[in-house]
Amino acid sequence: MKKKLAVLVTGGSGAIYAYRLLKALHGLGIETHLVMTKNAKLVLEAEMGMTANEMEALASFHYDENNFNAPIASGSFRLDGTVVVPCSMKSLAGIAMDYERSLVIRAAAIALKERWPLILMARESPLSTVQLRNMLRLSKAGAIIMPPMHPFYFKTKNLDELVDITAGRVLSMLKIENSLGREWGSAGH
């Protein structure tokens, strides 16, 4: 059975993570349901010089952030996981407080209530006590808090390779076999 994932992109810095993850999922033939916030589209343009249409072309389906009639707004539409990449602190707070003001927050809330994997690639530094409390609240609710923290011991040669290792790690967390992630033993250690 084909896996189905929601990929929710917010306005935190790090659009490249969403792009490389979607590209990998597209290449693996995994069904993806993409939502990009208005701010995510602005960050994508600023950081990568890409349009939302270019990102949407990698997804199986895409929805407006205000479309609460999208299939991913209901728990009866089964998914194998949901990834918020990058996850802004605004979106993280909305998810933590169950303030369903957008499809991004609604889809993340569905993942929590249905108990399927929810990975939040939180992007912020340094973190405030409030942000850490929100992360703890979400972790206790079952979310996986996974800031993109790069393993430098693989001696990567460029940014894409570094980002792909992180994307591969996300795929591995979702039990999706891939060639992007690396294991400690593969570094020659």
CATH class: Alpha Beta
* Average pLDDT score: 93
| Beta content | 15-25%
How much helix is in the residues? 40-55%
Which runs of at least 5 residues are low in confidence (pLDDT < 50)?
A: none
What's the N-to-C terminus distance?
A: 36 Å
> How can the largest sheet be summarized?
6 strands, parallel
Strand order of the largest sheet: 3-2-1-4-5-6
Number of domains: 1
**Which overall shape is indicated by the principal axes computed on the Cα atoms?**
globular
The class by helix and strand makeup works out as alpha/beta
Number of strands: 6
CATH topology: Rossmann fold
Tell me the CATH architecture: 3-Layer(aba) Sandwich
The named CATH superfamily? Flavin prenyltransferase-like
Question: What can you see in these coordinates?
Answer:
By secondary structure, the chain is α/β, with parallel strands linked by helices. The chain has one domain (4-184): Flavin prenyltransferase-like (Rossmann fold, 3-Layer(aba) Sandwich). The protein is 41% helix and 15% strand. It has seven helices and six strands; from the N terminus they run βαβααββααβαβα. It has helices spanning 15-27, 38-48, 52-56, 89-96, 103-114, 129-141, 159-173; strands spanning 4-9, 31-36, 61-63, 81-87, 118-122, 144-145. Strands 3-2-1-4-5-6 form a six-stranded parallel β-sheet, with helices on both faces. Helix 1 links the parallel strand 1 (4-9) and strand 2. Helix 1 (15-27) packs across helix 7 (159-173) and helix 4 packs across helix 5 (103-114). The longest helix is centred in the last third of the chain and has 15 residues, at 159-173. The radius of gyration is 16 Å and the shape is globular. The N and C termini lie far apart (36 Å).
